[in-house]
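QA checklist item 7 of 12: single-chain prediction sanity check.
[x] sequence parsed
[x] length recorded as 237
[x] structure emitted
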Amino acid sequence: MKKLLLLSLFVFLFISKGNAQIATPISGEEEFGAWYMYFGTNKLSEKWSLHTEAQFRLYETTDNFNQLLLRTGANYHINKDAIATLGYGYIETDASFIDLPGETNSKEHRIFEQFILKNKVWEFLFEHRYRLEQRFLEFANNTTDTQHRARYRLQVTLPLTNTFFLNFYDELFINLQDDLFGQNRLYGALGVHVTENSSVQIGYLRNQFTNAVYDRLQIGIFYNPDLSSLFKKKPKS
């Protein structure tokens, strides 16, 4: 019964447009966009792994570039339920939905510190992600800015079978300067375990800012190979 209720909630999230405000053509808020994503946790040893990530975001499902995000980081596994990360991200953004003459994308170099805690309640797998970000922004008019931000994400995963699962999260962004509220992301997806260390998720994201709400299709590929054997010393013959 619990699984049926959660599946119904997932379907509702997927088709709902939320409480989106009236959109203007220049924002692209009325369009159903897409995020195509890859995430990897590459095991290097019992305590260390390498995070790899690439996201390609569009204002529309197959067209109109919005953002490219590349991120990597070193993960230290304190235990199986606690992970600390230090990482770097590069982000290029086209902030306007329409093409403007002579437009130049903004660029961002980002450093982040992250801590993840995991726990299980009955069949539900909970993940709490705490992140701090230092953002170094370069705009088209040759101006720069440094901003700081905190993020908290609560993620819940429910296995349906050995192959299929549901994944939900809500993530709050808090600015550490100017206006406190940055954005909120609400997400629901159906996931499929393809192999023991890889999966695919297809879902819906409702991304809410102060004055806009965007609806996004998300397709994510997750691949977590064990590379630790490459770093083990070979016995001398």
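[x] summary fact logged: The first strand starts at residue 32 and ends at 43.
[ ] second reviewer sign-off
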